[in-house]
Structure formats: structure tokens, C-alpha cells
Amino acid sequence: MSKHDTDVKSLAHTKWNCKYHIVFAPKYRRKVFFEEKREAIRDILRTLCQWKGVEIIEGEICPDHVHLLVSIPPKMSVSGFMGYLKGKSSLMLFQRFGNMKFAYRNREFWCKGYYVDTVGKNTTAIKSYIANQLKQDKESDQLSLFDPRDPFTGSK
């Protein structure tokens, strides 16, 4: 077993091992995570997780969504943490990139929902899935070729 499979942490009177696989996306699944924004969102998510005492075990920022494998203390709910993470990160992104305010009205950067799954003893499988997610996305984009012809200009 790996270190993260048997990693038990403790609070004052509690032993815990709570890991979650979380996936969330920007509003309208816009592909905004490129170059400088990708690095910025990575730094922002790391900072916010450190402030809350949440450990990021594995993470991947794909062009139109974010995968995180995190260890959240049991004193904090997943929904409360996600509200904090998405709210604060959108404010920090709009502060860093002022021109994004016009693309996202009312400073709504993230979609309302997210996907969360408890990891249990499958930590290594989830880590490898997240690590290979960007590669799989690029391969699937290669399969869907762009057809420059207009489909509405056919013959009568």
C-alpha cells in the first residue's frame, strides 16, 4: 500500500482519512485555462487549500475543467469547502485578470455544481486517472477533427 492509502491524520480527539475526488468547471465550460491563467489558478487553488488546512494530493487543470484529489478534515463539509474554494478563487481571478470581468457577467466564473466522490482505498487509481486526464483529453480532441466546410451550404 502506498503512503496515501494508509495515511491517517488526527485532530484533538479524532483519527481521520477523508479523501475526495472533486471535478468542477468554469461557467459554460469555456476553455479559459491556458498559459498564464492555468498557472494562476493553480497557485490560487493551492493558496486557498493551505488557508483551510486541506491537502491537495493530486490535481490537474484541463482546458475546460479542474480535477482535484484532496484530503479534507472531517470538521469541514465538502459543500462548505467547495463554496469557499469557488467563491474566493473567482474573486482572486477577477482581481488578477481584470479583463475577465466583461466575459463573465456578475463575476460568475464557476458553474454552480461540481462532482465529488469519496476515494476510499482507491487512492492510487484516482491519482493515476487525474494524472492522465489531460493526456486523454488531448487524444480525444485529436479524434474529433474540425471540418471547415459550412454544413448549411449544400446543394439543393
Subunit organisation of the chains: single chain
SSE class: alpha+beta
The fraction of residues in strands falls at: 15-25%
Our Rg estimate from Cα atoms comes to 19 Å
Q: Termini, distance in Å?
A: 65 Å
Largest sheet: 4 strands, antiparallel
Low-confidence stretches: none
Name the average pLDDT: 81
Apparent shape: globular
Question: How many distinct helices?
Answer: 4
What's the short version?
With 156 residues, this protein is an alpha+beta fold. It has 4 helices and 6 strands, in the order E-E-E-H-E-E-H-H-E-H. Strand 1 and strand 2 form a beta hairpin.
Question: Would you mind describing this structure in some detail?
Answer:
This protein is an alpha+beta fold and 156 residues long. 40% of the residues lie in helices and 19% in strands. The chain is built from four helices and six strands. Helix 1 crosses helix 2. The longest helix has 21 residues. It is globular.
